[in-house]
Amino acid sequence: MVDKITKETRSKIMASIHSKNTKPEVDLRKALWTRGFRYKIHYGEEKIDIAFPSRKVALFVDGCFWHGCPVHAHKPKSNQAYWLPKLKKNVQRDIATNELLKIEGWIVIRFWEHELDNMDRVIKTVTDVLCIR
Ligand SMILES: [Zn+2]
User: Fold this and answer.
1) What is the pTM of this model?
2) What separation in Å is there between the alpha carbon of 73 and the centre of ligand 1?
3) Could you report how far apart the first and last alpha carbons of the chain are, in Å?
4) Beta strand residue intervals within the chain, DSSP E
5) In whole angstroms, what is the distance from residue 131 CA to residue 133 CA?
6) Neighbours of 100 (CB within 10 A)
7) What whole-number distance in Å separates Cα of residue 126 and Cα of residue 133?
8) For a Cys-Cys bond, which of 48, 103, 112, 119 suits 43, CB 3.0-4.6 Å?
9) Ligand 1 center to residue 62 CA distance, Å?
């Protein structure tokens, strides 16, 4: 099978999978900050996107494509042999991270990128969880 994307493009894409400070992540951080929440970013060994360490609440923002959102993640049509294992690995890593954090006593909340369209609802969820901790 002929590979249609260049090496350069591929490495850019791969870098973006693991990149921090993605737009949705920054959007959520700003929304929380302006409402007076204080948090740590890229926290701990698990590199929690947004962490409230004293309450052990961990927030992650997952890109719809890279993390397999049920609404928006359509399987790439070309280069499936290349992409499917990568995407699968991402999802597996997310699950492993969740489990590790739960064992350490954290509450883990993951938001899909598309859920941030309703930021008020996201903030309410975060507020509710912080209240019970
Ligand atoms: Zn989505």
Assistant:
1) 0.82
2) 7
3) 53
4) 40-43, 48-52, 57-62, 107-112
5) 6
6) 13
7) 11
8) 48
9) 9
Cβ atoms 129, 111 nearer than 8 A: no
CA distance 98 to 35: 26
pLDDT, one tens digit per residue, over 17-68 is 666 788 899 999 999 999 999 999 999 999 999 999 999 999 999 988 888 8
Q: Using an 8 Å Cβ cutoff, are 119 and 31 in contact?
A: yes
Question: If DSSP codes are grouped into helix, strand and coil, which group holds residue 126?
Answer: helix
Using the mean position of ligand 1's atoms as its centre, give its distance from the Cα of residue 24 in Å: 12
d(CA 69, CA 31): 22
Tokens (6 digits) for 93: 């890593």
